[in-house]
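re: that chain from earlier
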Amino acid sequence: MWEYTEKVKDFFLHPKNVGEIVHADAVGEVGSIICGDALKLTLRVDRETGKIIDAKFQTFGCASAIASSSALTEIIKGKTLDEALKISNQDIAEYLGGLPKEKMHCSVLGREALEAAIANYKGEGKPVEEGERIICKCFDVFEEKIRKVAMENHLTTVEEITNYTKAGGGCGSCNSDIESILKDLWAIKVVPEKILSPKKLTNLRKIALIQDVIEKEIRPRLQADGGDIELVDIDGNSVVVALRAMCVSCPMSGITIQGIQEKLRELVSKEIVVEEE
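^ sequence. v structure.
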C-alpha cells in the first residue's frame, strides 16, 4: 500500500478546480483511458497580460492523478504562460509534499497536459516526429518521451522509467529497449571535434592535455546532466578520477567511466586507463 501525504489526501478527497471551462482559451488533452490515465486541462488566459486567470481539469485515474491535476491548476493560476512552462513535474510532486515513487507518472501527465494546453493556445499542434518509435506498446509510450523524462528527472534505471512513464510496467518485453536508451543517453558521446595532440608527448604535455580534455570536453557534458568530475591523479597512462554531484552512486557510473576513458584515448593516448577513486 502506498503512503500518501496529507496534502495528497486532501487534494484527492477535496479536489480543486474540477470541471471544464466553457469556450476555453486553451485545451490540453493527454493520456488514454485505455492505458489507465487520461487528463484534460482547460485554461482561461488574459490576452493582454498573458496570465492564466482560471484553470480546470477532468481526469481519469487514481488518487495521485486527481491530486496532481488539482495541484497543477492551483500552481498555474496567476502565472503567465512563460512562467507556467517552467513548472516541472517535480514541482507538482513537491507542491503535494511528495508522491509515492510508483506514482510519479501522474505528475508527468500533468506537465504534459500543461505543455499541450499552452501549445494549443499558441496555435501549435503537437509535433509528430517522423519515424518516432514506440517503445512500450502496453502503455503507448514513445522513445522521445522516455528520453525527455529521463533527462528532466535524471532517471537511470528501468524501474525509474516505469515509475515516471509506466513504460515497462506491463508485459516487460520493452525493458531491454529502455535499458539501451538509458545507456545511450548517459554515456559520454564522442564528438568529431578533436583537440590536436603532439605526435610525441612528454609527461608534462600529457598531463596538461589530459587536464584540458577533462575541463573542456568531459566536464561540461557531465555538468549539463547535473553531474561533475574531479581529476584526482595522473601516473603515466593511469588516470584516476572521482565522479561528483548527480554522478555519485549513479548506476550508470561504470558506463560514464568507460566513456571518459574512450574520450581520453581518442584525444590524448590509446594507452590511457581511467579508474574511479
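The chain has ten helices and eight strands.
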